[in-house]
Amino acid sequence: MSSDIDVVTVGHALVDIRILVENFPGIDQESKVLEQSWGSGGSAVNVAIGVRRLGLKSSILAKIGFDSFGRIIVDDLLKEGVDISGLRISLGQTGFTIVAINKKGEITMYGYKGAAETLGPYDLSEYAISRAKWIHIASLRLDTTIEALRIAEKYGLKSSWDPGRVLASQGLEKMKPVVSRVNVVFLNHKEATMLTGIEDYKQAAKEIASTGPETVVVKRGEKGVYIYSRELEDEIPAYRVEKVIDTTGAGDAFASGFITGLLKGYSLRKALQYGNAVAALKISSLGSHGVPTHDEVVRFIWERGGI
């Protein structure tokens, strides 16, 4: 079957409510909200929109409620040009995340997954997956993840997996049915330690790679990323920005850039640097969808000496 979609994402679709506050109040205290932003979020949404803005065609498999928050998600995805034929509607409520950010850039989050975490294996559209070249699975329950990979393997898709803390906390042995079958694993340092029980992120990445994936990328925030793969082992530094506004979703922005880079035919190193540039531009603005366009990324990299 021909691929008319570049990337299909599978995972959570939520509404993100972001507020910039003067400070985090104590019990029975109040803090002034300086700025606020509402919009769709969740890793599946973020990456689907991210790769779309970078010039690829994307679709999403996720579950939302038949409510006003669900409408926000649908409207955002349609506005960005993401294929929503694989979106499922639940009788439950659409999930949401409240993100409070103080003047220091510190973050406090409150999350309600709602309908998002009820996406089961039976909800997955084989047709939607078969149309794509790449599948990105993020923060998704284990049984649904395994089924998504089964379908992806059937049609020869490349795959990436970002487990999130919940699945990472279950350990590498339990996650082997997933880790051993994906091409790329994305984790932050804490998740790598949770998954393997190894504090050193380099050793943790090597332990993960020993179970099968071609590439393991450890996201290290302002320090950049570490990659361990069959082709390359290196630290790729982050780009510096004048002012950090909102770091939530930076990992999804990086993943969007890295996947896009690979599908554009970039080398691993160039794709990593491209991903870092996407993340740098994302953290310079408030909201889930601060992901730039391809031209903006190229200009940003060029102004800093190129790749």
UniProtKB/TrEMBL annotation:
<keyword id="KW-0808">Transferase</keyword>
<dbReference type="InterPro" id="IPR002139">
    <property type="entry name" value="Ribo/fructo_kinase"/>
</dbReference>
<dbReference type="InterPro" id="IPR011611">
    <property type="entry name" value="PfkB_dom"/>
</dbReference>
<dbReference type="Pfam" id="PF00294">
    <property type="entry name" value="PfkB"/>
</dbReference>
<feature type="domain" description="Carbohydrate kinase PfkB">
    <location>
        <begin position="6"/>
        <end position="288"/>
    </location>
</feature>
<comment type="similarity">
    <text>Belongs to the carbohydrate kinase PfkB family.</text>
</comment>
<protein>
    <submittedName>
        <fullName>Carbohydrate kinase family protein</fullName>
    </submittedName>
</protein>
<keyword id="KW-0418">Kinase</keyword>
<dbReference type="GO" id="GO:0016301">
    <property type="term" value="F:kinase activity"/>
</dbReference>
<dbReference type="InterPro" id="IPR029056">
    <property type="entry name" value="Ribokinase-like"/>
</dbReference>
<dbReference type="InterPro" id="IPR002173">
    <property type="entry name" value="Carboh/pur_kinase_PfkB_CS"/>
</dbReference>
<dbReference type="GO" id="GO:0006796">
    <property type="term" value="P:phosphate-containing compound metabolic process"/>
</dbReference>
